[in-house]
Amino acid sequence: MVKGYCVKCKEKDIEMKDSEITQTVRGGFMAKGTCSRCGTRMSAMLSKENAEKALEEGSKKSF
Ligand SMILES: [Zn+2]
């Protein structure tokens, strides 16, 4: 499960719904999705390790 910061809830480590993993131009990984609590769009930087884990857990691959 991908977790990220929600600007609306002002909390980090909130579960991200419908997460989609993308790769940045620098080769890093980002997750995009919606806050599981309020539905606001959110994104999070991921390490390669966490990106691979998220993909294994069913996140959409977008790169
Ligand atoms: Zn939220």
Number of helices: 1
Characterize the largest beta sheet: strand count, sense, and whether it forms a barrel. 5 strands, mixed
Order of SSEs, N→C?
EEEEHE
Helix content: 10-25%
Please tell me how large the radius of gyration is: 11 Å
Structural class designation = mainly beta
Beta-strand content = over 45%
Whole-number count of domains:
1
Please, could you describe this protein's structure?
There is one protein chain. By secondary structure, the protein is mainly beta. The protein has one domain. It has one helix spanning 48-56; strands at residues 3-6, 11-23, 29-35, 41-46, 60-61. Strands 1, 2, 3, 4 and 5 form a 5-stranded mixed beta sheet that branches. The longest helix is centred in the last third of the chain and has 9 residues, at 48-56. The site of zinc ion has 8 residues, from loops.
Give a nutshell description of this structure.
The protein is 14% helix and 51% strand. It is built from one helix and five strands.
Question: What are the SSEs and their pairings?
Answer:
Layout: E1 3-6, E2 11-23, E3 29-35, E4 41-46, H1 48-56, E5 60-61
Parallel strand pairs: 2-5
Antiparallel strand pairs: 1-2, 2-3, 3-4
The protein binds zinc ion (ZN).
Offer a few descriptive terms.
63 residues, 1 helix, 5 strands, 14% helix, 51% strand, binds zinc ion
